[in-house]
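This entry is listed below:
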Amino acid sequence: MDNTTPNQTAPAEIRSAKEMLKVLRAAFPVFAEFKPLAIGIDKQVMAIHPEFEKKLLRPAMGFHTRSISYLKAMQNASNRFNLDGTPADPVTAEQRDHAAQQLREHFKAGAEKRRAEKAAAEAAAAEAAAEAERTRKLEALASKFGRK
């Protein structure tokens, strides 16, 4: 597909930011390949696709630039890229550090969530075992002192 030709998807068909992101990834290799995007690339997209809604484009760009694949590409990149794949501005050390920090925070939050889920599962299992033990004891007492 020619990167300067409007996509065949009508704006009425794009109802969410996630759908918009799918269209961007299909239309532009820099999105599909998770290359670091040029600053102001949203203006390039709107110039090529004026039919796109900005209220969907902005969150779609956010989903893309906060994705693990994009952040990994950013932390190792030396250049940003335009929609046509040509190099734009260089990626600064500060931008690479920011991407690395975002990745660390993401993985730390994931690890904390998994630990919390594991602790909750262990607590639920312990509670179930305690309840089973109470039930067993009550049944033993009932059979011992029950009328025959």
